[in-house]
Design brief:
Layout: H1 8-11, E1 32-34, E2 41-43, H2 46-77, H3 88-114, H4 128-137, E3 143-151, E4 157-166, E5 169-174, H5 179-195, E6 211-214, E7 219-222, E8 224-229, H6 268-275, E9 278-283, E10 291-299, E11 328-333, H7 336-343, H8 352-387, H9 403-412, E12 416-422, H10 425-438, E13 444-447, H11 455-461, E14 464-467, H12 485-492, E15 496-498, H13 510-519, H14 524-529, H15 533-538, E16 556-559, E17 570-575, E18 578-582, E19 609-610, E20 613-625, E21 628-637, E22 640-645, E23 653-656, E24 661-664, E25 666-669, H16 691-695, H17 701-704, H18 712-719, E26 722-727, E27 735-738, E28 740-743, E29 753-755, E30 760-763, H19 776-788, H20 798-802, E31 808-812, H21 815-828, E32 834-838, H22 846-852, E33 856-858, H23 883-890, E34 894-896, H24 907-913, H25 927-932, H26 936-941, E35 959-963, E36 974-979, E37 982-985
Parallel strand pairs: 3-6, 3-7, 8-9, 11-12, 12-13, 13-14, 14-15, 20-23, 20-24, 25-26, 30-31, 31-32, 32-33, 33-34
Antiparallel strand pairs: 1-2, 3-4, 4-5, 7-16, 9-10, 10-11, 16-17, 17-18, 19-37, 20-21, 21-22, 24-35, 26-28, 27-30, 28-29, 35-36, 36-37
């Protein structure tokens, strides 16, 4: 065996003693010595020979001692093979990790950008999820979709196209396909799987196995992809026991938590979300902490196993990357939420500075672990080279892999695709600084209401924005949102996706976000890509989902109308080849929306102009009131409508609507218009009143009303045609006080109020449990007493309620409570004008409401079962007829309002949803109904008939809007607003 190679320091040690200065050393190489006489040599004396031999021995012995000392120093400076080494298995495991990391590092930028598609680009094992599902649910039925208008999610639209699905993938796309073509393509795929060592063995099919669906030209698209959802970690119906989105007790940074450990695969929202065409969702933790933990991408199709593992997008994929990279996802948050959650309790962090430091400290801790791993690998590889199979004996510890740091280290090694909840530019900038300081990638900023202000930077950093189309005024961070933001991002080349943040917005209607964006001017193909191919690519799965291409997962949606059209909803949803929603493909299809008419002319020089007299002419349809649609023109003098129709003589300033339509100004009811600007900023709110003050007559919304001042909420309202607000005070108790009707476009209070005392508002149900009435039974007891024995105070609004002077508006949802209310009021106070508000379960007692003549205000008209009281919600589009159709069919007068204040500008869109249902008998809905639910129906419910609000009538104050078509549907723009003498042309939403 070759001697061990000594380190360089030991090899340079001297082996001979140094020569004494001034003393010559005897040569030792010759056995004889030269005589003093020239040319004569003499033998050395024996004593000399002995002395020289002794000297050689001494030198050799000295060298041996020095060598032993050097070896001892070497062994003492190295780990002892008998002491602190690790097992050979642990050493080899660490080396394998090192090798995998090194291999990944060589190519990680390309893999990250390409999304980790399979190395062969051919998916040798097909759709791995389908193999798992087949074992649990049985094989999917091969499907041939014929005569489709194919939207591929990448901007291409193909007419008269056929799509063949089998074994969980799209096996063929073309024209004129037959069941035989499906068989050939499916069996060719089966042959490929049979040749793969790991591929699932699937059955060969025959033409008799193929289901043929003729969609008659309807749009067929890829399944939608939602890259921000909390379904499963906050299950319906919103029980506290199911709320698992935020881990607040562990401090502000918890990157090591995993959503997969909390997701409830039995959450009914998963199936509902799929019914809207959303086939893939990224489930991520909430934003209460700076680092919430890892998310999980799932398919919204529950397997027979009832296991979250089988929901996972990565289910069935091989560990070696043959089926593509096994991506992980992570959620972080900055800004208001973490600082409010911790600072509000006097804990750290309580500021953006604290947020940033806490993040950097956690990143630095993880980076230290990453560096320790790299150092371990370098040392271990060197020892392996030097000591071969005994190298493990010289390693002091295993590969350093701290569990609490593992997730962040994986992020830094490009194994995780990071999603960051950030709204403001300063927060976005902070995270980009962290990105560069600690060298990790960011996939998307979520919510990102100010991302459009940094569009060029995001494009340069290849960071996308996951955004709402128009949801904004719920907190300061959202205040600078713009509906034009997506267009700015697109112009800069920055990618963006629309997301739900379910249950904040109902993910079942994710397509609604794209529809609204198109309404505000975004290109249709970009809008549709923002819910299909873009989020798929951002999740690292753009090579298998988000587009209709051969070889992609069989995630397919058949739409009842083009998906960006008002009210579009799936007729069939297919996930991994399995049909999860199936409505009849009736032969009749919704009518194509009418084209827009030319813009109004002329355009006023000033946004809002006071005109003593004006005329709007060339109107193709004037929806004046129920059952009356006129044509011609409208004249207004001193703010009062003086003539409507074809025989009117123009007066004053002339505005030509060029064939557009006019409808009454919309009424925004039961949302805090004029009482609040930013929901989370108490300083912008009137505040909450107590029940007793409200019942004693001290709480009137007119006293808290504020208008003008450049507030965004009221501007949202009037620029979208909501010219009147009917609002009551805020309050979570039994009574909220008396509402006021006012002009949303007013700049001064003296010009604002239209009716000072409109109705008394109370609440029955869980939200009304408070000190005054801690139970629902006590709420009814108090109401019974108030109806039979009114308060002694002459100022109590119940005096006017009992006399029938103002309505009693009751917010409640449970059909049991609705029935009790009807009986209580009819038997104790028959003069009371009862109005039902909220009313999720009203459709179940529609006949009782109709018999009692009780109008209903649905809030919201498209509900979700997000609380126990809302479990009666009938989700839109899953079963028909709709709630509105049932109520209308029974003869109930129905109005609509929205839930969130900033959704007021979508009020006319919500009305449009009511026009697209499949009515039964008298339940058929039309455009006149859609106008009515947000105008005259609300006016009648609140007793505003004498004001003329909600109608366009001669002799009444002007309150109308003119549009370039419609009147309901996306794309139709307001051309003129007539608000008394105040006229506006082409108002633009910010």
């Amino acid at each position: 065996m070759a001697p061990k190679r000594l380190p360089d320091a030991e090899a340079r040690l001297p082996l001979l003693p140094p020569t004494t200065p001034g003393t010559a050393r005897e040569p030792s190489s010759s056995p004889t010595r030269r005589s003093s006489r020239a040319g004569v040599y003499e033998p050395k004396p024996s004593s000399v020979v002995i002395r020289e031999q002794f000297h050689k021995l001494l030198v050799a012995l000295t060298a041996l001692i020095v060598l032993l000392l050097a070896l001892d120093a070497f062994w003492n400076s190295s780990p002892s093979p008998l002491g602190s080494g690790i097992t050979a298995a642990a050493f080899e495991e660490g080396l394998r990790t090192c090798a995998a990391t090194a291999a990944q590092r060589r190519d990680w930028d390309r893999v990250f950008l390409e999304g980790g598609k399979p190395p062969s680009n051919s998916r040798p094992n097909g759709n791995p999820r389908h193999a798992v599902l087949s074992a649990l649910n049985g094989s999917s039925t091969p499907l041939l979709i014929q005569h489709a208008t194919l939207w591929d999610g990448l901007g291409n639209r193909l007419q008269n196209t056929d799509i063949a699905l089998a074994h969980g993938i799209i096996v063929k796309i073309g024209a004129g396909l037959t069941p035989g073509d499906v068989v050939n393509a499916a069996n060719a795929h089966a042959n490929k799987l049979a040749k793969s060592l790991r591929g699932p063995k699937v059955a060969f099919i025959s033409a008799q196995d193929v289901e043929v669906v003729d969609v008659q030209g309807r749009v067929v698209s890829p399944g939608l992809v939602d890259m921000h959802s909390h379904s499963g970690i906050g299950s319906l119906p919103g029980f506290w026991g199911d709320e698992d989105g935020n881990e607040m007790a562990g401090g502000p940074t918890n990157p090591y938590l995993r959503a997969q450990d909390a997701i409830n695969p039995l959450d009914k929202a998963i199936e509902l979300i799929a019914s809207g065409g959303v086939t893939t969702s990224l489930i991520i933790p909430g934003s209460g902490t700076l680092m919430g933990g890892e998310g999980l991408a799932i398919k919204n199709f529950k397997s027979a196993s009832n296991s979250v593992n089988d929901l996972a997008l990565n289910s069935g994929m091989s560990l070696d990357g043959e089926d593509g990279k096994l991506w992980r996802w992570m959620k972080m948050a900055c800004g208001e939420n973490p600082k409010r959650a911790f600072g509000g309790q006097g804990k750290f962090p309580g500021s953006r500075m604290g947020n940033a430091w806490a993040m950097r400290a956690q990143f630095e801790k993880a980076r230290s672990t990453l560096r320790a791993q790299d150092d371990w690998c370098e040392t271990a590889e060197s020892l392996k080279s030097q000591f071969k199979n005994k190298a493990s004996q010289y390693v002091a510890s295993r590969y350093p892999d701290t569990l609490s740091d593992e997730s962040l280290v994986a992020l830094m090694r490009r194994d995780i695709r990071l999603q960051v909840h950030c709204y403001q530019t300063n927060d976005i900038d902070m995270m980009i600084r962290n990105k560069h300081e600690f060298d990790f990638p960011i996939i998307a900023f979520h919510h990102a209401t100010e991302a459009y202000m940094l569009a060029d930077k995001l494009a340069a950093e290849n960071i996308s924005a996951a955004i709402f189309a128009d949801h904004s005024l719920y907190k300061r961070e959202g205040y600078k949102h713009s509906v034009r933001g997506p267009q700015v991002l697109a112009a800069a080349g920055a990618k963006f996706a629309f997301k739900s943040d379910h249950p904040v917005l109902n993910a079942q209607h994710l397509i609604y976000e794209a529809q609204k964006a198109v309404h505000y001017g975004l290109d249709e193909d970009l809008a549709f890509a923002a819910v299909t191919s873009v989020p798929a690519e951002r999740l690292g799965a753009g090579w298998r989902i988000g587009s209709l291409q051969e070889g992609f997962d069989a995630d397919v949606v058949v739409w009842d109308r083009p998906p960006l059209q008002q009210g579009a909803h799936p007729l069939r949803v297919i996930i991994d080849g399995y049909t999860t929603l199936k409505h009849p493909l009736v032969t009749s299809q919704p009518p194509t929306p009418l084209p827009r008419t030319p813009a109004v002319s002329p355009i006023l020089d000033f946004p809002q102009t006071q005109l003593p007299a004006y005329t709007v002419s060339n109107i193709s349809g004037i929806y004046t009131q129920e059952n009356q649609i006129l044509k011609g023109l409208i004249t207004v003098e001193n703010g009062i409508v003086t003539c409507i129709g074809l025989k009117c003589t123009p007066k004053g300033y002339l505005l030509n609507l060029n064939g557009g339509v006019v409808i009454p100004g919309l009424i925004g009811a039961a949302i805090p218009l004029g009482l609040e600007e930013i929901s989370a900023e108490e300083s912008t709110s009137d505040g909450e009143a107590g029940t007793q003050d409200a019942l004693d007559g001290f709480v009137h919304a007119k006293d808290g009303l504020r208008v003008g001042g450049g507030g965004k909420l009221l501007e949202y309202a009037w620029k979208s045609g909501v010219l009147t607000g009917v609002v009551a005070g805020k309050g979570a108790g039994f009574a909220q006080g008396v509402s006021v009707a006012f002009r949303t476009a007013a700049e001064r209070y003296s010009d604002a109020v239209l009716k000072s005392d409109v109705a008394l508002h109370i609440t029955i149900g869980n939200n009304a449990k408070e000190g005054y009435a801690k139970s629902i039974s006590s709420q009814f007891a108090h109401l019974r007493k108030l109806l039979t024995t009114p308060p002694a105070s002459p100022d109590s609004p119940f005096t006017d309620v009992l006399a029938g002077k103002i309505p009693l508006v009751v917010t409640t949802h449970d059909p049991n409570d609705i029935s009790k209310l009807i009986t209580l009021v009819s038997t104790t106070a028959p003069k009371v004008r009862l109005v039902l508000h909220g009313a999720t379960g009203a459709y179940l007692v529609a006949d009782e409401l109709a018999k009692a003549g009780v109008p209903v205000i649905l809030q919201p008209p498209r509900c979700q079962q997000e609380s126990w009281e809302l479990r009666w919600c009938k989700p839109y589009g899953t079963t028909r007829p709709s709630v509105y159709e049932i109520l209308k069919g029974a003869g109930v007068k129905v109005g609509f309002t929205v839930r969130e204040p900033d959704q007021v500008r979508s009020l006319l869109f919500e009305a449009g949803w009511g026009t697209v249902g499949e009515g039964i008998g008298d339940g058929k809905v039309d455009a006149e109904d859609a106008v009515g639910v947000v105008t005259w129906r609300l006016a009648d419910a609140f007793g505003l008939e004498e004001t003329g609000l909600g109608r366009v009538l001669v002799g009444k104050r002007a309150s109308f809007i003119g549009l370039d078509g419609g009147p309901v549907g996306f794309g139709y723009k307001i051309q003129v607003v007539g608000d008394g003498a105040l006229v506006t042309t082409q108002p633009v939403q910010a």
